[in-house]
Amino acid sequence: MKSAEGSKSAQGSLMGDLKAVINDAEELLRDAAEEHGDKVKEHLQDAGAELEKRVRAHPLAAVGIAAGVGLILGLLLSRK
């Protein structure tokens, strides 16, 4: 009986340690996602500003490119 009780105690201890490791890993992932998420958000904002600047500089080219992309996507999606 003693070995069964010891085994249960060891399992409980192991489960507690495992839960602590999982919680620590979740916290690390959350922190990393926040850090990289801010960098990605900043990069996308810069890219959006650059795109807007180029579209304002060449509006007809932007419309032509958008129409071409729309035409190609329409052709590809309408295929069966």
What is shown here, in short?
The protein is mostly helical and 80 residues long. Helices cover 95% and strands 0% of the residues.
Secondary structure: elements and pairs:
Layout: H1 2-57, H2 59-78
Helix pairs in contact: 1-2
Molecular structure report:
The protein has 80 residues and is mainly α. The chain has one domain (2-78). The chain contains two helices and no strands. It has helices spanning 2-57, 59-78. α1 packs across α2. The radius of gyration is 28 Å and the shape is elongated. The model has no long low-confidence stretch (mean pLDDT 86).
Count every helix, treating DSSP H or I runs of 4 or more residues as helices: 2
Distance between the termini: 69 Å
> What string, H for helix and E for strand, traces the elements in order?
HH
Low-confidence segments: none
Characteristic terms for this protein:
80 residues, mainly alpha, 2 helices, elongated
